[in-house]
Amino acid sequence: MDHYIDIRLRPDPDFPAPILMGALYSKLHRALVELAADDIGISLPAHNTGVQARHPGETLRVHGAADRIETLLATGWLKGMRDHAEVGEVFPVPDNAVHRTVRRRQFKTNADRLRRRRMRRHNESETEVIEAIPESIEKRVTLPFIQVRSSSTGQRFSLFIEHGPKQDTPEQGRFNSYGLSSSATVPWF
């Protein structure tokens, strides 16, 4: 993780930034799957948190070795996004960078959906599932998210992204096909 590239969304009157970020990130996901890349990570340096401001920001930062980032760029995965994004140069990570994990978080946020699922799976009555799953189970998620389409299932879903605490030393490890890891860190600056 000694190099990075920033991809910044351009303002667009027809498409809001979260929609464009979803398209950009979905394309990156497909490219990482194609490359079988487990050594490329991402971060969202301008993300916002909070119930009312769960926005990924306008910058997608891709981290990795310089040659791996160049290989990724050579796949042409940005085709169709060039009008909507500015692709920066591949730069070395600043010496003073700290590190943090960037990982996926999943939440059980909808009590009604959980109840319907339990009724189907366990053949329980509505009364039984209301007792088992109270309204208080719902969580108010404050993390930024991106709407993506899975390359394996084709389903669209909200990918909630959590930036872990800052730490002084990097942790080596593998990244998934979304450029996320619960243990490996990326530089943060």
From TrEMBL:
<dbReference type="Pfam" id="PF09618">
    <property type="entry name" value="Cas_Csy4"/>
</dbReference>
<dbReference type="GO" id="GO:0004519">
    <property type="term" value="F:endonuclease activity"/>
</dbReference>
<feature type="region of interest" description="Disordered">
    <location>
        <begin position="164"/>
        <end position="189"/>
    </location>
</feature>
<dbReference type="InterPro" id="IPR042564">
    <property type="entry name" value="CRISPR-Cas6/Csy4_sf"/>
</dbReference>
<protein>
    <submittedName>
        <fullName>CRISPR-associated protein, Csy4 family</fullName>
    </submittedName>
</protein>
<dbReference type="InterPro" id="IPR013396">
    <property type="entry name" value="CRISPR-assoc_prot_Csy4"/>
</dbReference>
<dbReference type="GO" id="GO:0043571">
    <property type="term" value="P:maintenance of CRISPR repeat elements"/>
</dbReference>
<feature type="compositionally biased region" description="Polar residues">
    <location>
        <begin position="174"/>
        <end position="189"/>
    </location>
</feature>
